[in-house]
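Support case: user asked for a sample of complex input and structure output to validate their parser. Sending the pair below.
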Amino acid sequence: MATEILMPALSPTMEEGTLAKWLVKEGDTVSAGDILAEIETDKATMEFEAVDEGTVGKILVTEGSEGVKVNTPIAVLLEEGESADDIDSAKSAEPPVAADLKGEEGRTPPAPAQAAAPVSETPVEPEVPEGTEFRKQTVREALRDAMAEEMRNDDTVFLMGEEVAEYQGAYKVSQGLLDEFGGKRVIDTPITEHGFAGIGVGAAFGGLRPIVEFMTWNFAMQAIDQIINSAAKTLYMSGGQMGCPIVFRGPNGAAARVAAQHSQDYAAWYAQIPGLKVVQPYSAADAKGLMKSAIRDPNPVVFLENEILYGKSFDVPVLDDFTIPLGKAKIWREGTDVTLVSFGIGMTYALEAADKLAEDGISAEVIDLRCLRPMDTDTVVRSVMKTNRCVTIEEGWPVASIGNHISAVLMRDAFDYLDAPVLNCTGKDVPMPYAANLEKLALVTTDEVLDAVRQVTYR
Amino acid sequence: MAARKTTRKPNVSADELKQYYRDMLLIRRFEEKAGQLYGMGLIGGFCHLYIGQEAVVVGLEAAAEEGDKRITTYRDHGHMLACGMDPNGVMAELTGREGGYSRGKGGSMHMFSKEKHFYGGHGIVGANVPLGAGLAFADKYRETDRVTFTYFGDGAANQGQVYETFNMASLWDLPVIFVIENNMYAMGTAQKRSTSTPDIYTRGEAFGIPGEAVDGMDVLAVKAAGEKAVAHCRSGKGPYILEIKTYRYRGHSMSDPAKYRTREEVQKMREERDAIEHVRELLLSGGHASEDDLKAIDKEIKDVVNASAEFAKESPEPAPEELWTDVYADVAPQNA
């Protein structure tokens, strides 16, 4: 029977890809292991091999097609004796194209808010002058552009880390930077986080402005002594003589199906350290504006990105030099009944919950902290004085979480305004499991946010 | 230990030799005074004295040029004095006063001087080694020919990040001199009980880094080795390792129980190998200085050290507002 060749998932977070090139044509005979096509994923261009033998009966997706969803049939393979005429029957035997991505990948981030509630996609944006043009860009591209712009502006800025140069970035964030800036300024390091983080800090002491990429923040635990003891504390220990202008950046938090050692949110860890600034952006525009500010900042900045958000597109202002000051929260959506406070990927749950709550007549104000140190608690307090209720959302663990801190600040500064206890929606207090169903249970969900809101609004 | 084997004629002038004598003596008298102030409760916390190791920094500083950088661990008082930092500022930092190099906020282990290219003063064993390579990285990036002296001990030489750094320093030809001050004890653990091979300088071989052992009780031998290492680094050939065999007369810190070595061992080193005595003999036997000349130097140093102690006692404690300064370079801390 004719078999369909489906668009493969070539990385844990891949949802769609570009069919860059077919290496076979209709009528070709292939055997298992032959390379059929080149597919560009969210991380890299990869070769895709045949699993079965047969004849390529029909190519369903032409080369150059972008945004081909995982599990979409891209070609039909005929067994011996079959002809292209058999294809239609084979296709009709298959279920509809839209594959269950959750089954395939364990988790997909909630879809962006739909047109029904466009307010989620047009936040209050004080940094952008009226009349500015916007264009769609992924978080990944925005981060790359931010680094490239700052490297053009200041030749003491350089990027070092594992696979940042020739590989073009393990998550493709540094794509193209080696070509533009050369090996002196885009430097592949050995897999020695402790050592190269220390070299980066020393280079900052020596007057350069390093950007140190950790392939993920999980690996930065090997280097945490250099981040905290050397980078964060030296200005203070030197009585103000010697600062450390450096950006430590990389993906943070759970990706998908990579289990306990590769799935951890460090927001609360680094937010505790005086001397560090800590940024965790959600949107592409924020990623860009905050990254540019982080590179210019005279202090060490921990920049927590997210693998799942890398491929998500947002409107990014088209401006020559778009920066966002560190330490200012953003109100994504105004509301009157409850304040939802989140940051990073937690914002996807907060915004989705706000849309659903609107359907039930509950008006939620959604605040993206964007920076965890300094943290714009003033904006949160002002909002809660209006809404009298607050739910925090984050992917990190519940003990000593960012939500705990917000709760304490609200008790101190807005006690008389609170009509309900502040509730914290967090990841569960367990190491991240691998099994698809357990992983889903371990993460915070939109439903949990909705339940929390119903509790604090007594509905 | 046998008598000194280097009987060769020093290839330095009488003035230089006198300068080394003066510099080493300053460190020793300063450290003795620090020990005294510690006993009086004027210095608190950790205080690691450099007595016995003076020839290491004085010899290497003699090989350094303006603009060369240095970075070390927590046993750092000698390094600061040798590179020309003000004894008053160092002593006042030890007493935690406003007049200290870090305005009282760093203490014995954490002082810095941009002017003298002294980059600390670091308290985590081994952590200053990649930092030193990073300073060298900055010089190479800027295309200067300056070198960085990165000092650490025989104990730190067993830290993993040291070898991560050796690898990258060699891979990228960084102009860094790794100075292993081997004083034979990692805190209280003798080298042979902590370190699998006796010659630490050979550990660079695996990374293609040349190294050599140096008699650290002979300031001229240290200087000669330093010049060789500096020439290697400055010419763009990458890192160099100097394992300088030295000896610490005092405890690891002020609370050392002194149970891990014998009193006789320490006494023997002091009597037979003392670096300052060695230069003193060279000065006298070579007819470069008279007893009276040396007495005058002793007096001069004593005055400098006493003045630093006075300054360190008189300097006020930092103002309470200092608690909240220097956390960030640009903004006030949030939760003040």
